[in-house]
Amino acid sequence: HIYLSGQADAGTFITKANKSDGTVDWRRQLGSSSANNVPSSIVMGSGGNPIVIIRMTSGNEDQGYFNLNESNGADVWKTLVKKTSGNTTAMNTTSHAKVDSSGNIHSLVWGDTGHPNYYNAIVKHNSSGVLQSISDYRTSPSTEDYFGDIAVDSSGNKYVSYRYNTGSGNNKVGLMKVNSSDVIQWQKGIDSAPNYISPEQVEVMPEDAGIIMRIDDRQNQGDSGDAKCTFVRFDTSGNVVWKRQFGISGINVQG
After folding, report:
1. Residue 222: what pLDDT?
2. Which has the closest alpha carbon to 131: 203, 182, 199, 65?
3. Which residues contact residue 26 at a Cβ distance below 8 angstroms, ignoring those fewer than 6 apart?
4. 8: exposed, middle or buried (Cβ count in 10 Å: 0-12, 13-18, 19+)
């Protein structure tokens, strides 16, 4: 089956569709009827149910986690998380939650005190939706610094894509490895365009052979027609194995 989430004036919805012919098995609304409730991620839980993560603007900007019965979409459990510093939980649509071999759910959350300051955290729930930890990270200067996506390897290490400001008005991107206790093991920056650039998806390769990170390189703010997508492969020590950029001059290529 295929699970789809979307946003409308009436709120956030999730749909289960048959992969063979696209017929809808069920569809349901999550949260209240607010156009500002935004879905960010769907991941399959260890029990075979979809877990949907959405920004709950209607709930004082908490981040909502919904485990849904795959047969009918009914709630199995649901919980909320709010950043422990900062005033709100900002939308983080690039982040894709991951489930490890023990069924734990790993995700990211921002605390936003007002653009352009972002306070970041790594969040862990167990398979029953019980919060295990929120690990806060804040840089200096914090302007424009934020996390993009998270991945987990077979040993419980986590890899987080991030953007950071150099302090001279330029943004760079990088990859960070933390252990199962969220202690930083290494951080590796990537040479990139001088400013409008975003850290996107991160995935661990099969058999922990390395990490793939995607970078959205806008190069110029707005729809200038010069956006590029870059893929970077790292080994598990943080060394760059290769980089590949895709783009055509005058055409936006963005994920």
Report:
1. 46
2. 65
3. 15, 16, 72, 73
4. exposed
Per-residue pLDDT of 204-239, as tens digits, reads 999 999 999 998 876 554 455 566 788 999 999 999
What distance in Å separates the CA atoms of residue 35 and residue 37, rounded to the nearest whole number? 6
Tens of pLDDT, residues 64-108: 899 999 999 999 999 988 765 554 555 555 688 999 999 999 999
Alpha-carbon gap, residue 233 to 105, rounded angstroms: 24
Determine contact, residues 237/222, Cβ cutoff 8 Å: no
**Cα distance between residue 213 and residue 203, in whole Å:** 7
Could you give the CA distance from residue 142 to residue 224 in angstroms, rounded to a whole number?
27
